[in-house]
Amino acid sequence: MSYWEQRLAKARSYLKGLDAIMLSSRYNVTYVTGYTGSDAVSVFTDTTSDLFVDSRNTLQAREEAHAQVYEIRKRWEEIYEHLRGLNVKTVGIESNVLDVDSFLQMKNLFVDIQMTPMGGQLKYLRAVKDPSETALIAEAARIAGEALTQVLAAGIVGRREIDVAFDLECAMRRLGASGPSFEIIVASGPRSAMPHGAASEKVIGKGEAVVFDYGSLYKGYASDETCTVFTGEPDAEFAEVYGHVRKAQSLAIDGLSAGVKASVVDRLARDYLEGVGLARYFGHGLGHGVGMEVHEMPVVSHLSKDTLEKGMVVTIEPGVYLAGRFGVRIEDTVLITDNSCKRLTNLDKDSIKVTT
């Protein structure tokens, strides 16, 4: 069985009595068919795999797709006629990504085809990575880590956060990335206490915490990593908080393995921070899956119902945010193995990075 046949077989395992499944999210369409462009719909049954695009994308689709390509003008009308031709009576849809206007149009057209919402199930289609995917994520992480190392070596004090973020993106592109995997966060001083403090015009000063949350996109796969550095000699409070966040992360990483509930891993980090009086400053979940998108399944939080499986790639990113003062977040991306995990990000988190 070829690589693409294996992926299609994996997708077909979700049929479970349905005649067909319709994929409309760009990343799932790419995952199943290999087509990397936009505005496409994939429909597969237990014996067929078809891809529907408009005339702007036909050539690219026919070059890339491991599926039968159809050029269409009236998307839902022509897909409906195709489904009727296959004698499809039940079809699963990605209810979590389908826009309301499209759904209403489909509802009016698909009068003799039962649509089954499968958003919750299909979110897990890409949750377990194969070795080729893991290798691409690892390369994305290598590129991103090397890029940050270069930017820090050049100096960041006295420069605007947005300029440092721009340099980081340029460095990732020069090293082979197609771009950043998400909007780069560079948050310094009191702004470092903003978990999603996108780079601003603030000038980075001496004696400040600086949070870098960044990643690269390499051949369609994302990386995600957070480093917190200090511009000068860290004071005792920062050093103490950094040490506690690092310890919480280490405890969580040590608890990772196939078969472990994601909520249990979150609890390992959160309980430690509770014990040192910092849990109330850690408001977000511990991590998330990474793959084609920087946020995928599974969810690693105290509310998660997910169980970790071999081949899943997740982030572990505890943080403590002291409003008006500083924040610390430390994040690594790891691959779940049978009895443990393998770190895919490369930068050392065991000591506070002092930079200028």
Give an overview of the whole structure.
By secondary structure, the protein is α+β, with helices and mostly antiparallel strands. Helix content is 34%, strand content 22%. The chain contains ten helices and 20 strands. The strands form six sheets. A six-stranded mixed sheet has the order 4-3-2-1-5-6, sandwiched between helices. The protein has a four-stranded mixed sheet with strand order 8-9-12-20, covered by helices on one side. A three-stranded antiparallel sheet has the order 7-10-11. Helix 7 packs across helix 8 (161-174). The radius of gyration is 23 Å and the shape is elongated. 44% of the residues are buried. The mean pLDDT is 97.
User: How much helicity do the residues have?
Assistant: 25-40%
**Number of continuous helical runs:** 10
Question: Approximately how much beta-strand content do the residues carry?
Answer: 15-25%
Please give the oligomerization state of what you see.
single chain
Rounded Rg: 23 Å
Strand count? 20
How far the N terminus sits from the C terminus, by CA atoms, comes to: 54 Å
Task: Please summarize what this structure is.
The chain contains ten helices and 20 strands. The mean pLDDT is 97. α7 (131-154) crosses α8 (161-174) and α9 (236-254) runs antiparallel to α10 (262-275).
List descriptors.
4-stranded mixed beta sheet, 20 strands, elongated, alpha+beta, 22% strand, 6-stranded mixed beta sheet, 356 residues
